[in-house]
Amino acid sequence: MKPVVIMVGADKGGVGKTTISRALLDYFHRNNVLARAFDTENPRGTLHRFYPTITEIIDLHNVADQMKVLDTLETAKVPVTVVDLKAGNLSYALETFEKIGVLQAARDGQFEMGLIHVVGPAIASLDELQEVTPFVEGLDYTVARNFINETNFFEWDEKTYKRYFSNVNEAREIVIPKLNEMAAEQVDLADVTYKNFTDNKDSQGKSADFSFVLRGYVKKWCSEIDDEFDQLRLIQMLTSGGSGEAGKAKS
């Protein structure tokens, strides 16, 4: 199976990019798909805090760090690489990857590349779609409407839809549901993955004492996200039989 790179990002801040990266890594864990991650929120590394054993913090503006991601795709012991792009890094990453031939290599089939573009409720977030359009041709492009941080989401009426999606014909759309605020807060305070929280395990895998009720909210939320991720071609390829089996861990 070819290496798979999935970038998660947006130029606008506060739309929940890292939350979706966490949910994606958790999804892979639950489905026994081996993955590694790169956290571009240098030096803080929010994603690294929850997945320290498989995540490396990098500065995407540093050429040596770009090499850590891209020059190791064939030699990495896992088939999936998730890159969590910090706010403002999406356009830079796409422009840089286009300039050095990364996007063309993906279009030519040397590896699989997907982009999950996270958008919030504001028009400013949707304006990014037009900026991203020139780069995503031939890539697996997904627009994720994230309800996590907002109760009322901007409604994409027919006029707005035509305006922003007319030039992104192959874009897929998924909806990330809102997680109960108290449940989200408790997962973050516990410094554990969503799976550990629902399994009532601490970061070391030992028994914890998390709320049964809050674990229920998180479990339901993960199930809803599973349904959304299951729609995506790259995800289907990784979790289904046939070629996808190459990405699964041996039990």
The major pleated sheet works out as:
7 strands, parallel
Number of helices: 11
Rg measurement, Å: 18 Å
Query: Secondary-structure element sequence?
Result: EHEHEHEHHEHEHEHHHH
The count of β-strands is 7
Query: What general form does the structure show?
Result: globular
Catalogue the unreliable spans. 241-251
Euclidean distance between termini CA atoms? 19 Å
Whole-number mean pLDDT: 85
Please indicate the percent range of residues in DSSP E strands (runs of 2 or more): 15-25%
Tell me roughly what share of residues is in helical segments.
40-55%
Widest beta sheet: strand line-up: 3-2-4-1-5-6-7
Structural class based on helices, strands and sheet pairing: alpha/beta
Write up this protein:
The structure is a single chain. The chain has 251 residues and is of the alpha/beta class. The protein contains 11 helices and 7 strands. A 7-stranded parallel sheet has the order 3-2-4-1-5-6-7, with helices on both faces. Strand 5, helix 6 (123-132) and strand 6 (140-146) form a beta-alpha-beta unit. The longest helix is centred in the last third of the chain and has 18 residues, at 212-229.
Primary descriptors:
alpha/beta, globular, 251 residues, 11 helices, 7-stranded parallel beta sheet
How would you summarize the topology of this molecule?
Elements: E1 4-9, H1 17-30, E2 35-39, H2 46-50, E3 55-57, H3 63-70, E4 80-84, H4 89-99, H5 102-107, E5 112-119, H6 123-132, E6 140-146, H7 158-165, E7 172-176, H8 181-190, H9 194-198, H10 212-229, H11 233-239
